[in-house]
Design brief:
The structure holds three protein chains of three kinds. Chain B is mostly helical. Chain B is built from nine helices and no strands. Helices cover about 40% and strands about 25% of the residues of chain C. Chain C is globular, with a radius of gyration of 18 Å. The chains are: A mainly alpha, B mainly alpha, C alpha/beta. At the A-B interface, helix 3, helix 4, helix 9, helix 10 and helix 11 of A face helix 2, helix 3, helix 7, helix 8 and helix 9 of B. Bound molecules: adenosine-5'-triphosphate (ATP) and magnesium ion (MG).
Chain lengths: ~230, ~230, ~250
């Protein structure tokens, strides 16, 4: 029991790293995804097609490979090694965040795009016919529908991101997985450290789900109310 | 780049592609089987079997895949090593790493497949089951001839992303020392000093697979759409 | 129904059924002779569907017995299969298999349940599709047909298995009015060919035209059972009269 508590204590040292990896890349990824998706929606054409293809390719490549490329490959590029960028790419932690956010951007932009194109045309036309400007139309007719349609797949994506942060240990980041794996290698005790880490990840996901679902209820209900008032 | 490919690395990559594709294909098949089985279980009358399935999908959609892989790899490795020591004759120990790899990938993807099949199943009208019964099909016949083809049609696009995920999951094999695409690329990158060629090849392989995958499943979907709607 | 008449096609005796605490069927007795055409009617929720679903084992019942051509219905896979081979069923919602063509819908059960070779099964299917007058649609998928056509395919699909008894549960209720006729005509053809039929329907004209007997159900009981002329013109029970007032106008 004391051994277990010792492990728990040691592994929990990685909790802030795991959580910050998760949250920072979530925010960066979301902002980038919004920009990418807005670009594709606002300026349809060859360029948007190219952006979509790029996102498609990113979605097809494993995160682990991207981590390796950025962490082991980028330092060899002169323009990274010899500029201020080096401070960022020398740190495995920031490499992990950049990679996670990069991949998150590719998946989330597609969710946003999907949610946008699922919005029923009639609602947009109805709002337009009421004389609303295009921004008002977006706020009143499109955004609420996008939130409702996009939230469930986004929840899945957020949880996938949370799980993916565990890969950061492969480039020496000491997150929960990193500590657990270190204990495993040091003590040759397989089950206890890994199961503790697993339990922590599951708790994180449970909390994330709770937060997201209460957020969704708030937004969904609020959206319905504004729709009723109009 | 051609120099590298002709100087033995080409063969290495071909082998790696074979390894990754094999593991991905097996995991895909197993996860589909798990999905069907768990869906049947969760629709069973037995109390508790549905909640057991829910627990399974919840846990394995929350647990990092890499954690499960390492857990299974080291615990199975211990068991197999001690077994091998007792058995006469030497077997290829490297081969054994594939078992935990396929196991962990199948378990994780099985949780997603279960959610998928459950959703597809729930969409099928009760009348379809009854028509099957009334025509005298056995349970298994009804499942294979009537229900599964309809579930399949509903979930084809998701099966496409599932197959893409199972391919991407093979990247994790490099962590436990299986010479998959990612591991081959990193070894090449390190030993030749030109990482971008090797990582570039690996990325190209995955991108090509993603494109092929989306083409194949788009075709399957259009074929299924052709008549039945 | 005199003594010494031939064996009945369907015999239901003192059958009762509960959904949990709620009694849906209360002591049902019904005897149907081969070739007889029975129409079952009654208000919504009176248990009509439940009764005919019991006849081919889609619903279990708790008391009494049902026998189809002498074969008693027990909730065992083997006897159920034996009974279902004799009983065809047509549903309100058609329940065609959407992933199969019309022809494949008609051959699937023949090939897998009765082990008929493909070519022979297709020949039988085409013959039945001709009987319901849509052989030209055989390569289409159900979604490409009108409701009336779909229901006729469903009838053909059942007939392919050469059932001795056909059960219909409101076969025209989910059809657009202009398609009701074609389905009723198909059923009338079937009746003329001597098929034993039990049909739940609100089509009183059809009932009067082809039924040998009309069974009126209310609150899980068979309230009245009479030939059409008697049933429509001088019903014995007050509840029947009330029902008829609502339905026939
Ligand atoms: N699976 C079930 N569980 C519980 N109650 C049921 C179930 N199926 C039917 N019932 C109830 O049994 C009663 C009889 O249903 P049934 O479908 O046999 O009526 P019906 O005469 O066919 O009516 P309708 O004309 O509306 O089709 C109804 O009160 C219904 O609510
Ligand atoms: Mg009914």
């Amino acid at each position: 029991m004391t051994v277990l508590l010792g492990y728990l204590h040691e592994i929990l040292q990685g909790l802030t790293t795991t959580l910050s990896l998760f949250l920072i890349s979530l925010v960066i990824g979301f902002v980038a995804a919004t920009i990418v998706a807005a670009f594709q929606i606002r300026f349809p054409g060859v360029l948007a097609g190219a952006v979509w293809s790029l996102m498609f390719c990113i979605r097809g490549v494993p995160l682990l490979l991207i981590l390796y490329v950025v962490y082991y490959g980028f330092p060899l590029l002169p323009f990274i090694r010899e500029t201020a960028l080096w401070t960022v790419f020398a740190s495995p932690y920031w490499c992990a965040i950049i990679c996670l956010a990069f991949v998150e951007m590719a998946f989330t932009s597609e969710i946003i795009r999907g949610a946008y194109y699922q919005t029923p045309k009639e609602q947009v036309e109805a709002a337009r016919s009421l004389g609303l400007s295009s921004f008002q139309t977006f706020r009143v007719a499109i955004l609420p529908a996008m939130l409702r349609n996009g939230f469930p797949p986004y929840t899945t994506e957020v949880i996938l991101l949370c799980k993916s942060t565990a890969l950061a240990f492969t480039i020496t980041v000491m997150d929960i997985m990193g500590y657990a794996n270190e204990i495993r290698a040091r003590t040759l005790d397989i089950y206890q450290p890994l199961l503790i880490a697993g339990a922590i990840y599951i708790c994180t996901v449970v909390v994330t789900r709770l937060i997201l679902s209460s957020l969704f209820n708030m937004i969904a209900v609020g959206g319905a109310e504004t729709a009723d008032q109009k | 780049m051609l120099d590298y490919l002709t100087s033995g690395w080409g063969l290495q990559f071909l082998r790696a592609i074979g390894t990754s594709l094999t593991v991905a294909a097996l995991s895909f098949v197993f996860c589909i089987l798990i999905g069907i089985l768990c869906t049947l279980l969760s629709r069973n009358d037995f109390r508790g079997s549905a909640s057991l399935v829910n627990l399974y999908t919840y846990v394995f959609r929350s647990l990092p895949d890499i954690l499960l892989l390492i857990l299974i790899f080291y615990s199975l490795d211990g068991a197999i090593q001690s077994l091998l020591n007792r058995l006469p004759g030497s077997s290829d120990i490297r081969l054994n790493a594939y078992v935990p790899a396929i196991m962990s990938t199948s378990i994780v993807l099985g949780a997603y497949a279960t959610e998928l099949f459950k959703a597809g199943w729930a969409d099928i009208p009760k009348g379809q089951f009854e028509a099957g019964q009334a025509l005298g099909f056995t349970r298994v016949q009804s499942l294979v001839l009537v229900i599964l083809p309809q579930v399949y049609r509903k979930i084809i696009p998701h099966l496409g992303s599932l197959s893409l995920i199972s391919m991407k999951e093979t990247a994790l094999l490099s962590v436990i020392g299986i010479p998959d695409i990612v591991r081959t690329a990193s070894i090449g990158a390190r030993s030749t000093g030109s990482p971008f060629v090797f990582y570039g090849i690996a990325i190209a392989i995955f991108v090509i697979f993603a494109i092929l995958c989306s083409r194949v499943f788009a075709y399957l979907e259009s074929r299924a759409r052709a008549g039945a709607q | 129904m005199t003594e010494g008449s031939p064996a009945p096609a369907i015999e239901i005796s003192s059958m009762s059924k509960w959904f949990g605490p709620f009694q849906v069927l209360d002591d049902i007795d019904l005897k149907v002779m081969p070739g007889e055409r029975i129409v079952v009617c009654g208000p919504s929720g009176s248990g009509k569907s439940t009764m005919i679903r019991c006849i081919n084992g889609l619903e279990p019942f708790q008391k009494g017995r049902i026998a189809v051509h002498g074969q008693e219905l027990i909730q065992k896979a083997r006897t159920l299969d034996a009974v279902r081979k004799n009983v065809g069923m047509v549903f309100q919602q058609f329940n065609l298999f959407p992933h199969l063509t019309v022809l494949d819908n008609c051959t699937l059960a023949q090939r897998w349940v009765h082990k008929v070779p493909r070519a022979a099964a297709e020949k039988i299917a085409m013959a039945q599709l001709e009987k319901v007058r849509i052989p030209e649609q055989s390569r289409k998928y159900p979604s490409q047909l009108s409701g009336g056509q779909q229901q006729r395919v469903a009838i053909a699909r059942s007939l392919c298995l050469r059932p001795k008894v056909m059960l219909f549960d409101e076969p025209t209720s989910s059809l657009d009015p202009e398609m009701v006729r074609e389905v009723l005509d198909t059923m009338a053809d079937l009746a003329r060919d001597g098929m034993t039929i039990i049909c739940v329907t609100h089509e009183m004209g059809f009932a009067r035209g082809i039924a040998d007997r009309i069974v009126f159900m209310d609150q899980g009981k068979v309230v009245e059972e009479a030939p059409p002329a008697e049933f429509f013109d001088k019903p014995r029970e007050a509840r029947t009269r009330k029902f008829l007032d609502q339905v026939v106008r």
